[in-house]
Design brief:
The protein has 838 residues and is an alpha/beta fold. It has 30 helices and 17 strands. A six-stranded mixed beta sheet has the order 5-6-7-14-13-17. Strands 4-10-11-12 form a four-stranded mixed beta sheet. The chain has a three-stranded parallel beta sheet with strand order 2-1-3, sandwiched between helices. The radius of gyration is 26 Å and the shape is globular. The relative contact order is 0.11.
C-alpha cells in the first residue's frame, strides 16, 4: 500500500514545460519568494524633512482590505526611507519639477541595478515609494485634505462602511504610447518637449505650463540614464564571466542598453529591452506596482521587429526565451509586498495586461506568427500570473487560433487568458465616442486599435487615461434605500466601540414603502435612489481627483500619453486627449433578482406585504424561512434567458448606465461612463450590505459583475450567455446598432465568468462543441468571457492541502489568482459556482 505525500497533490495540475535551463532557473528562483537573496520589495526614499510623505494612500481607496493599514504604511515608509541628497535651490523649484527630479535621482543613482544569472532582459528593481517633495505648507494642506477629520480618508471609510462600495483615483490602468518609444526612442520625445517649450511665451514659461514642460524634460531622460547604469553593470559582469557564451550575452546586453530606449529599436531583442525599461519606470514613478499598466496590442507593434529578426537569423526558440525573460520580469512586480502580503505578495491584483490577436480595419483578422509565439510562451510558462493575456476574438477569427485557445483552456486550471469579443467591445467604444462627444478621437477608422487594461476594461491606446476601476458602486444600496425611504436597513455599528450609529436619512425621501400600492411606485423609488447613490459616488470620486490633480504629478508617464505635451498638462491634471472614469456596477444580478422578488412576492403574487418583507430582511431571514425559500426558488431570475427577467435587467442596466454619463470631474474634466468589473468586492461587501429580497442573507456573497447570481443559471450556458447579451444591449433588428447591428451600453466592458466541467474538453468532439460555443458567444454574448475549467473536488482538496497546490490557478473575475492565496470566503464562492456541461 502506498501513501500520498502531504506535499503531493492528489490531482494533477498544470505544470510549466519546454523551458530552457536558463528559464527554468529564473522561474524557479522567482517562486522562492522571500527566501531569495534578492527581491524587488518597495524601497523608500525621503528628502529628509520631518514632514515628508511617501505613501500615497489614495491609490488604494478601491482596496478596502488596506484601509486598516493606512497609518502603518504611511509611518513605516517615513521611518524606513533612505535620504536623497538634494541640490542647492531644490525647494525653490515648482512641485512638478521637484517630483520629476526626485524620482529620476532615486532610480538612476540610489536604487541598486542588478542582472540575474542568465537573464537576457535588464531591469530588476523598480518598486519604490518616493517623497512627494512637499514644502512644509504643502504637506500641511495635503495632510488636512487626506487625513483630517473631514478629509478624504474619513469620507472613504464612511462610504464603504455604509455599503455604497468604494471610490477613489487610482494609478495604472492605461496603455502608454509604447509603440512610439520603440519606433522613435525617448530622444524623439525629448526633442518634442524642447520644441514645445520654445513655443510658449515668457509668461507661460515662468508659469505652470513652463514648470510642467521642464519637469517632463527631466523625466524624459530617466529611461536613458537607467539603461546606461544597467549597461555598465552588464559590462562589469562580462569582465568577470568565465563562460564564453554568457560573456557574449552580457556584452550584447551592454551594447543594447547603450542604444535603447533612447534611440529607436532595431531588432526584437532591442524592442523588448526598450519596452521593459520604459514600462517598469511607469510603475516606479507612480509608486504603484503594475495594476492595470498594460502593454496594449503588443503582438502588433512588436511584430515588425520579430519578423526582421527572424529574417536575419534569430531562432524562434531564442525569441521565445526573450519573451519568457520578459514575462518573469513582469512578475517581479509582486515583490512589492513580498513580506507583508499573503502568499508572499502574489495576489493577482496587479494586471499588466497584454492583448493578442483581434480584428483590424474592415474586420480583417490580425493574428500573426508573433501572436502564436506569445501564446506558446504563455502555455509553456503557466501557471504564471503576469503579464495577463487577453485574446481578442471576433467573427472572422481563424480556426487555428480558436483551436489553440481551446487546447490551452483544456490543459489549464482556471483560464490561461481572458477572451475579449471585438464586435460587442467595439460597439461600446463607439457608443462612448458619441456619448462623450469625442468622435474625432474614437471612430470607425481607429476603434479597432482599442485594447483592454487591467482585467478587461476597454480603452484606446496611447492617448487615454481613464480611471477604469475607480468607482465600484453597489447597486443593491438603491434597493435598500427604496425599501426604507433613504435609511440604512440595519444601522451601522462601529466594530471597535460597539456603538450603533443613530438612524438618519442618507438617501432621498421616497416615502414609506409599506404604503406603496403598485410595483410602479416601488420602481420609481428605486430609480430615485439609484440616481442618489450614483451622485454620491461621483462627488466622492471628484474629491479625490481634485487632491491628486493638485499634489501628485507624473511627468514621465505624461510624456507617453498624447495630449499632455500639447496642453502642457500632467496626466493627473487632465492632460490626455481622452479622460474617462468608470462607474463599475457591483451587485448587478443581486439587484435585478431582488427587484424581481419584490415584484413577484409583493405585487404579482401577493405572497407577502412589503412590511413583512422588510421585517424578514431586518431579521436576516431568520424566522422567515418559508418566505426566503419562495424568494430563492419561485421568483424569476436573471441568467435563464427568461425575457421577463431580462427585460427588467435591461431596465436596471439602462438606468444606472445612463445616469453615469451625466457627470464630469470638476478640475480634470473626466467623463463618467459605465462598466462592470466586481473584482472581489462581491465577497467582502456581502458582510456589509444587509439581507436582500432575492433570498440572500447578510454574510453571503453577492453577485459578480454581469454574472447571474450563483446557482441561478439553471438553464445551461447558452441561456446564461443570451441573458448577458440582452442586458448589454443585444442587437438592433434593423442592423442599426452602435456597430454593425451590435449594441452595448457598457463601453468599459463587462466581466462574465463561467465555470465548466473539465470533462467538457475530454476529446476532439467536445472541443469542437466548445469552439462552436465561443463562436456563438461572439454573436449573442457580452464583451469579455473568463472560463474556469476546473473540478470542484480539486478545489476542495486544495483547501485541505494548500501546500500541495501552491500554483493552482483559478479565474476570479477578469483575473487569475492562485487558489490557495485567496480568502476562504472567495474560495467557497468559486467552488459554489455552477459547473456547466454541454
Amino acid at each position: 500500500m502506498t501513501t500520498q505525500s502531504c506535499n503531493s497533490p492528489r490531482y494533477s495540475i498544470k505544470e510549466p514545460r519546454n523551458l530552457s535551463p536558463r528559464i527554468k532557473w529564473l522561474r524557479d528562483y522567482y517562486f522562492q519568494g522571500n527566501n531569495r537573496r534578492w527581491n524587488n520589495e518597495f524601497t523608500g526614499f525621503t528628502t529628509g524633512t520631518p514632514w515628508d510623505i511617501q505613501y500615497q494612500e489614495g491609490n488604494y481607496y478601491i482596496v478596502p482590505e488596506t484601509y486598516t493599514f493606512f497609518p502603518t504604511f504611511t509611518g513605516a515608509f517615513q521611518q524606513a526611507s533612505f535620504k536623497v541628497d538634494l541640490p542647492e535651490g531644490f525647494w525653490e523649484w515648482s512641485l512638478p519639477e521637484r517630483q520629476a527630479w526626485f524620482v529620476r535621482e532615486a532610480m538612476v543613482y540610489y536604487l541598486p541595478h542588478e542582472v540575474l544569472p542568465g537573464d537576457l532582459i535588464a531591469g530588476g528593481r523598480f518598486n519604490i515609494q518616493t517623497s512627494k517633495c512637499f514644502t512644509q505648507q504643502e504637506a500641511k494642506e495635503y495632510s488636512k485634505a487626506v487625513y483630517g477629520k473631514k478629509g478624504a480618508r474619513a469620507a472613504e471609510l464612511w462610504f464603504h462602511n455604509h455599503g455604497y462600495g468604494n471610490a477613489g483615483v487610482t494609478s495604472g490602468h492605461l496603455i502608454p504610447d509604447y509603440p512610439r518609444i520603440l519606433r522613435e526612442g525617448w530622444k524623439s520625445v525629448h526633442e518634442e518637449l524642447n520644441r514645445r517649450l520654445l513655443s510658449i511665451s515668457q509668461r507661460e514659461y515662468a508659469g505652470k505650463k513652463g514648470q510642467q514642460l521642464k519637469a517632463m524634460l527631466v523625466a524624459a531622460t530617466m529611461a536613458r540614464d537607467v539603461a546606461f547604469e544597467y549597461s555598465n553593470v552588464c559590462t562589469q559582469l562580462a569582465e568577470k564571466e568565465t563562460d564564453s557564451t554568457r560573456k557574449g550575452e552580457l556584452l550584447k546586453m551592454a551594447e543594447i542598453l547603450r542604444r535603447v530606449p533612447w534611440e529607436p529599436a532595431q531588432n526584437f531583442w532591442e524592442a523588448l529591452q526598450s519596452l521593459w525599461i520604459t514600462h517598469m519606470l511607469v510603475m516606479s514613478e507612480e509608486n504603484y506596482p503594475g495594476p492595470g499598466v498594460s502593454f496594449g496590442r503588443a503582438d502588433q507593434y512588436l511584430y515588425p521587429f520579430w519578423k526582421k529578426s527572424i529574417e536575419e537569423g534569430m531562432q524562434r526558440e531564442t525569441g521565445k526565451d526573450l519573451l519568457k525573460c520578459f514575462s518573469i520580469h513582469c512578475n517581479f512586480a509582486y515583490d512589492a509586498m513580498i513580506r507583508t502580503g499573503g502568499n508572499q505578495g502574489i495576489t493577482a491584483g496587479f494586471g499588466q495586461l497584454i492583448t493578442l490577436s483581434g480584428m483590424g480595419k474592415g474586420g480583417v483578422d490580425l493574428s500573426n506568427d508573433l501572436t502564436y509565439a506569445m501564446l506558446e510562451v504563455i502555455d509553456d510558462m503557466s501557471p504564471l500570473l503576469e503579464p495577463k493575456p487577453n485574446v481578442r476574438l471576433h467573427r472572422h477569427s481563424p480556426d487555428i487560433l480558436l483551436d489553440k485557445v481551446v487546447d490551452m483552456i483544456a490543459s489549464s486550471q482556471g483560464s490561461p487568458f481572458l477572451l475579449n469579443f471585438d464586435e460587442r467591445s467595439i460597439a461600446g467604444m463607439l457608443r462612448e465616442a458619441k456619448m462623450a462627444g469625442v468622435e474625432k478621437l474614437i471612430n470607425a477608422d481607429n476603434v479597432f486599435d482599442y485594447a483592454p487594461v487591467g482585467c478587461l476594461e476597454n480603452t484606446m491606446c496611447g492617448n487615454d487615461r481613464s480611471g477604469t476601476v475607480d468607482i465600484n458602486l453597489n447597486l443593491l444600496k438603491a434597493v435598500e434605500h427604496a425599501l426604507t425611504g433613504g435609511y440604512d436597513l440595519v444601522p451601522w455599528t462601529d466594530p471597535m466601540t460597539g456603538k450603533q450609529e443613530p438612524a438618519r436619512r442618507m438617501g432621498a425621501d421616497t416615502g414609506d414603502a409599506t404604503k406603496f400600492a403598485t410595483w410602479a411606485e416601488f420602481w420609481n423609488a428605486y430609480v430615485t435612489q439609484t440616481r442618489g447613490i450614483i451622485k454620491r459616488a461621483a462627488d466622492l470620486y471628484d474629491w479625490t481627483d481634485r487632491i491628486r490633480a493638485k499634489y501628485i504629478r507624473t511627468p514621465y508617464l505624461s510624456c507617453m500619453v498624447r495630449g499632455c505635451i500639447d496642453k502642457a498638462l500632467d496626466i493627473n491634471e487632465g492632460g490626455p486627449e481622452l479622460s474617462f472614469v468608470t462607474v463599475e456596477a457591483v451587485t448587478y444580478a443581486t439587484t435585478v433578482d431582488s427587484l424581481l422578488a419584490v415584484k413577484h412576492l409583493v405585487f404579482d403574487k401577493k405572497e407577502c406585504t412589503l412590511q413583512e418583507l422588510i421585517q424578514a430582511l431586518k431579521d436576516n431571514w431568520k424566522g422567515h424561512e418559508v418566505l426566503q425559500a419562495r424568494a430563492l426558488n419561485k421568483a424569476p431570475k436573471y441568467g435563464r434567458d427568461d425575457d421577463q427577467a431580462d427585460d427588467l435587467g435591461k431596465k436596471v442596466m439602462d438606468l444606472w448606465a445612463g445616469e453615469s454619463w451625466k457627470y464630469r470631474t470638476s478640475v480634470t474634466g473626466k467623463q463618467y461612463r459605465p462598466g462592470m468589473l466586481s473584482w472581489n468586492y462581491w465577497v467582502g461587501d456581502g458582510y456589509i450590505l444587509p439581507a436582500s429580497p432575492n433570498g440572500r442573507p447578510k454574510g453571503q456573497f453577492l453577485s459578480n459583475a454581469i454574472c447571474p447570481c450563483a446557482g441561478a443559471d439553471i438553464n445551461g450556458p447558452t441561456a446564461n450567455v443570451n441573458s448577458v447579451g440582452k442586458v448589454m444591449g443585444g442587437k438592433d433588428p434593423a442592423g442599426k446598432g452602435d456597430w454593425e447591428g451590435y449594441l452595448s451600453v457598457l463601453p468599459n466592458g463587462a466581466s462574465h465568468t463561467m465555470t465548466f466541467s473539465p470533462s467538457l474538453l475530454r476529446d476532439p468532439e467536445h472541443k469542437s462543441k466548445f469552439t462552436a460555443f465561443l463562436r456563438s458567444y461572439t454573436e449573442n454574448g457580452g464583451s469579455a468571457l473568463q472560463v474556469n475549467m476546473i473540478d470542484a473536488d480539486i478545489l476542495r482538496d486544495a483547501q485541505k492541502n494548500p501546500d500541495a497546490y501552491r500554483h493552482l490557478l483559478v479565474r476570479v473575475t477578469g483575473y487569475n489568482a492562485y487558489f490557495t492565496s485567496i480568502g476562504r470566503e472567495l474560495q467557497n464562492e468559486i467552488i459554489a459556482r455552477e459547473s456547466h456541461r454541454m
